[in-house]
Amino acid sequence: MVISLSSSLSFINLTNSKSPISEFPSKPKTQLPKSLSSTVCCSFSSSDLGFQCKEPFFFQKGRYPHGRRFKFTSCAIPGFDYGNFESAQSVLEAAAVLTAIIVVHESGHFLAAYLQGIHVSKFAVGFGPILAKFNANNVEYSLRAFPLGGFVGFPDNDPDSDIPVDDKNLLKNRPILDRAIVVSAGVVANIIFAYLIIFTQVLSVGLPVQEAYPGVLVPEVRPFSAASRDGLLPGDVILEVNGIELPKGGPNGVSEIVDVIKQNAKRNVVLKVERGQQDFEIGIIPDENYDGTGKIGVQLSPNVRFTKVKPKSIPDAFNYTGREFWGLSSNVLDSLKQTFLNFSQTAGKVAGPVAIIAVGAEVARSNVDGLYQFAALLNLNLAIINLLPLPALDGGTLAFILIEAARGGRKLPLEVEQGIMSSGITVVIFVGLFLIVRDTLNLDFIKDML
Q: How does DSSP classify residue 248?
């Protein structure tokens, strides 16, 4: 058997109640004409990788120095449009980001072992059957069928290995500190990588800053819809609905419009609209959905505009990067805490590779700059989740090492340790496969086929 350090992306948390993925201009949108459930079709396909949005999308100036920031949100919003892949390139970009993060994580383990002279036998991206492999310097490098993470294998208990069982450079024979360094190196690699990604963003494109304006923007009006029929145009800004003034920016204005439209099928809804320099009223009679709710056939988004803040010096760049990095990290930690405290409400928002790539593709399609934030947030999630003391995660292996240290250097029986780890890996595989199936079935084009 091969001892391996594995990392699973099955448990990437898409339920971040306060996830701060900085601020970059993707387009949160609300699609009224097509219901994904019994409610009006309200899908915020915005920019957050995988982290729930129960709290406001915006962050106050007190937390971030450059103004209010758009929240990176995704399928945490009910009805997220997983499957609207208009560009194969955006899917490939998201998949490449995910693969790079896995490779970085496993490279951390690999380099920590290699630099200490510890024997390594395998380096794998994915789990399960091997799709492609090659050998170099007695290490098998492979790409595997299930993209749930990856692992670095050590020949400590491999019956086919010709390395003596008492070799001092086997991982199991190294001191506790050496082993702890190897196990934790993947997490450290992801944290460093996240920082470098943010630093690169700060230097190359700057940090997007959002300024909110009154009303709700109408990016798209579908042909032959109620909105099109009654005179609403793309680019219009809705200032009031049935005499109710909409708040400045944020998702609340979108929600208010959605609620009014849902409740007024086949009844006149009066919208105060800003078009260019003119304000006027439009009466729209929503069409009726199959469930009796109203729809008008538009996409809606908060009325916000974005600018970029770039550092004036290298110290400024480090300052911006540090603030962004700590803001993201603290909110990822907070989201993880909320997930465990409210597991029954948030378990359904945990995402697998399909959902992660769907979110990343949406980000890439909206604004390629958003991939910086997507990658940074994924790195931090992977790092923090892998520190959890669960079998099959790095934190589980570290827990065994800490138990050994607490026992004065006496390890747990090998059968006990391997039994626990094998059970954990089995659970990870099954949960990962479940998430892949579930998230795939949530893709719009799959739903259309069913």
A: B
The residue with tokens 């593709």 is 361
Q: Is residue 421's pLDDT more than 90?
A: no
Identify whether residues 407 and 324 lie together within a single domain.
yes
The predicted structure's pLDDT at residue 316 = 92
Q: How many CA atoms lie within 13 A of 446 on its CB side?
A: 13
Confidence of residue 84 (pLDDT cuts 50, 70, 90): very low
In one-letter notation, the amino acid at residue 429 is I
User: Is residue 86 predicted with pLDDT exceeding 60?
Assistant: no
Choose one of 256, 283, 309: the last residue of a domain.
Answer: 309
Q: What are phi and psi of 74, to 5 degrees?
A: -150, -130
Q: Which residue has the tokens 């024997």?
A: 119
Task: Tell me the whole-structure pTM to 2 decimals.
Answer: 0.65
More confidently predicted of 69 and 318: 318
Residue 32 has pLDDT above 90, yes or no: no
Contact between 24 and 369 (Cβ < 8 Å): yes
Kindly report, residue by residue over 196-248, the tens digit of the pLDDT. Answer: 999 999 998 888 777 888 889 999 999 999 998 999 999 999 999 998 888 77
pLDDT for the residue numbered 331: 80
d(CA 186, CA 356): 20
The answer to whether 28 and 301 are in contact (CB under 8 A) is yes
Cα–Cα distance between 104 and 110 in angstroms, integer? 10
299, containing H or E segment = strand 298-309
Q: What are the two backbone dihedrals, phi and then psi, of residue 156, each rounded to the nearest 5 degrees?
A: -60, -40
Sequence-distant (6+) residues with CB within 8 A of 332 are: 13, 16, 19, 51, 377, 380, 381, 384
Domain hosting 284: range is 209-309
The residue annotated as part of the active site, out of 23, 106, 274, 362, is 106
pLDDT score of 258 more than 50 = yes
Specify whether 324 is catalytic: no
266 falls within a domain = yes
What is the H or E stretch that residue 241 is in?
strand 237-241
Q: At what angle do helices 394-406 and 176-204 cross, to 10 degrees?
A: 140
Tell me how far CA of residue 48 lies from CA of 15, 286, 369, in angstroms: 10, 30, 13
* Pairing of β 269-275 and β 278-284: antiparallel
Q: How far apart are the C-alpha atoms of 417 and 424, rounded to whole Å?
A: 11
- For the chain, the domain total comes to 2
* Amino acid (one-letter) located at 93: E
CATH number of residue 244's parent domain? 2.30.42.10
Domain end point (choices 309, 332, 352): 309
